[in-house]
């Protein structure tokens, strides 16, 4: 019987692990080639993984919700029919398939990645005591590559570390590049070694001193549900951003009446020529790209005491999903026409909702736009998408009464299509005057958008 090992794929160069969020097939189900048969979540993207061959799902080695290293065998596919497949539950809790011979195959990592931690279903591996992590000799200041990998351990590991006052960057773990795993942190705590207290602002996944706060207890009748992988990562990233950047938010009102008229006049022609729906967002993105060229600091990142001015203009646009939020990135948006931006935006949004994005399509953003206005929100104070230094919030675009100066100098009341924009910026490197000038530039660009700009 030919069997194919199904591994946890590496969804991007910097991805070291993934969470198997959902099985779309069960043991004994037939699977077609390229048919999605399980879903994974990483710290970059949610994705459906297609089957590499036609066959029957013979074994499931990683349960839903488990986080394992890339290259870990998560399942085995029987590529020849006829085998009597029966599910047997191992003492470790994993579900595997037993062949008619009764032999139970062992789970182990692929030989190409022996250094990676693997969640094995074998009894002997499950019974091994946690290996204690070793305290590192360096300062653990988070500047080296290994520091950054260690401190990017899973949310659970960071939560345990925060609760026990352990600085993850001071430990050498057994994962990739010294990545600290759950087994490492528990082993270190149980070993009774001297604990290195996390320094204020250390990136342990929560606020400094957070471990001193008691966790709330459920009351009778309450429903307790674990966060999804995506929600846990969003939570972690938002808290980290608030404790990294000095957030300040400014607001401005923008008159979209001219753009609304251009859009109404050109919409049918545009959609017939491109096959794309013309929304307000491409106009906004176009204005933002021009603003980033005029104010380069808005398109930068902070690296310690250095500022990295990005030459690429890669615009991330937040897309609300039923199960969370994701920010696909339009690369080199400043090189695209309005129709090109529209195509890229619609394509990325559609594939985000279908879980078809690749990790590269949610990486390397230099500036982010979020649009809560589609839900009716007038304005907001969005949190910066690290390691960027600013994020633009778009409020509801709607008709409002406005006072305008007439040609004769008399004030008149007119109906105008308007929206409030907000810019949250990192005050470490951006002063309020620059942020406000950027907003004013975007405002002017939108309000004077040329009809030939399509």
Give a quick precis of the structure.
The chain is 24% helix and 25% strand. It is an alpha+beta fold. The chain has three domains: 3-102, RNA polymerase II/Efflux pump adaptor protein, barrel-sandwich hybrid domain (OB fold (Dihydrolipoamide Acetyltransferase, E2P)); 134-215 and 228-234, no CATH class; 246-453, Chloramphenicol acetyltransferase-like domain (Chloramphenicol Acetyltransferase), CATH 3.30.559.10.
Notes on the structure:
Helices cover 24% and strands 25% of the residues. The protein is built from 9 helices and 23 strands. The chain has helices at residues 123-126, 145-151, 155-163, 182-191, 229-242, 257-274, 281-294, 338-353, 432-447; strands at 3-7, 17-23, 30-31, 36-41, 46-50, 55-60, 67-69, 73-78, 86-89, 95-98, 134-135, 171-172, 247-255, 300-303, 306-309, 315-317, 319-321, 324-326, 329-330, 367-370, 390-394, 398-405, 411-426. Strands 13, 16, 19, 20, 21, 22 and 23 form a 7-stranded mixed beta sheet that branches. A 4-stranded antiparallel beta sheet has the order 1-8-6-3, with no helix packed on it. Mean pLDDT is 79; it is low at 82-150 and 194-211.
Q: Which features does this protein show?
A:
25% strand; Chloramphenicol Acetyltransferase; alpha+beta; 454 residues; OB fold (Dihydrolipoamide Acetyltransferase, E2P); 7-stranded mixed sheet; 9 helices; single chain; 3 domains
């Amino acid at each position: 019987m030919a069997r194919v090992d199904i591994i946890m794929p590496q969804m991007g160069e910097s991805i070291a692990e993934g969470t198997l969020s959902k099985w779309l097939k069960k043991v004994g189900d037939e699977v077609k080639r390229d048919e999605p048969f399980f879903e994974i979540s990483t710290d970059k993207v949610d994705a459906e993984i297609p089957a590499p061959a036609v066959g029957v799902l013979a074994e499931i080695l990683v349960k839903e919700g488990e986080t394992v290293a890339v290259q870990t065998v998560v399942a085995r596919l029987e590529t020849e029919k006829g085998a009597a497949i029966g599910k047997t539950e191992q003492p470790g809790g994993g579900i595997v398939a037993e062949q008619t011979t009764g032999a139970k195959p062992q789970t182990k990592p692929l030989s190409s990645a022996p250094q990676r931690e693997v969640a094995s279903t074998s009894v002997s591996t499950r019974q091994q005591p946690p290996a204690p992590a070793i305290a590192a000799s360096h300062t653990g200041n988070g500047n080296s590559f290994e520091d950054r990998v260690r401190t990017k351990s899973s949310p659970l590991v960071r939560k345990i570390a925060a609760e026990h006052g352990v600085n993850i960057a001071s430990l050498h773990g057994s994962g990739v590049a010294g990545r600290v795993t759950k087994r490492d942190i528990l082993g270190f705590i149980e070993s009774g070694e001297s604990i290195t207290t996390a320094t204020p602002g250390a990136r342990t996944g929560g606020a400094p001193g957070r471990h001193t706060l008691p966790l709330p207890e459920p009351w009778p009748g309450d429903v307790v549900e674990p966060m999804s992988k995506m929600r846990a990562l969003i939570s972690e990233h938002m808290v980290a951003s608030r404790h990294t950047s000095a957030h300040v938010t400014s607001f401005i009102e923008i008159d979209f009446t001219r753009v609304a008229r251009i859009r109404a006049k050109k919409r049918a022609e545009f959609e017939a020529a491109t096959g794309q729906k013309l929304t307000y967002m491409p106009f906004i993105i176009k204005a933002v790209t021009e603003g980033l060229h005029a104010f380069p600091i808005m398109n930068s990142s902070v690296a310690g005491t250095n500022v990295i001015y990005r030459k690429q203009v890669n615009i991330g646009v937040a897309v609300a999903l039923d199960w969370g939020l994701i920010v696909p990135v339009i690369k080199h948006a400043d090189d695209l026409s309005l129709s090109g931006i529209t195509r890229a935006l619609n394509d990325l949004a559609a594939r985000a909702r279908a879980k078809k994005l690749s990790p590269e399509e949610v990486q390397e953003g230099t500036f982010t736009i979020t649009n809560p206005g589609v839900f009716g929100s007038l304005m907001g104070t969005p949190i910066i998408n690290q390691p960027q230094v600013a994020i633009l919030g778009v409020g509801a675009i709607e008709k409002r009464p406005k006072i305008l100066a007439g040609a004769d100098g008399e004030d008149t009341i007119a109906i105008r299509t308007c929206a409030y924009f907000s810019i949250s910026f990192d005050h470490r490197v951006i002063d309020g005057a620059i942020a406000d000038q950027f907003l004013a530039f975007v405002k002017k660009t939108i309000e004077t958008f040329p009809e030939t700009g399509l």
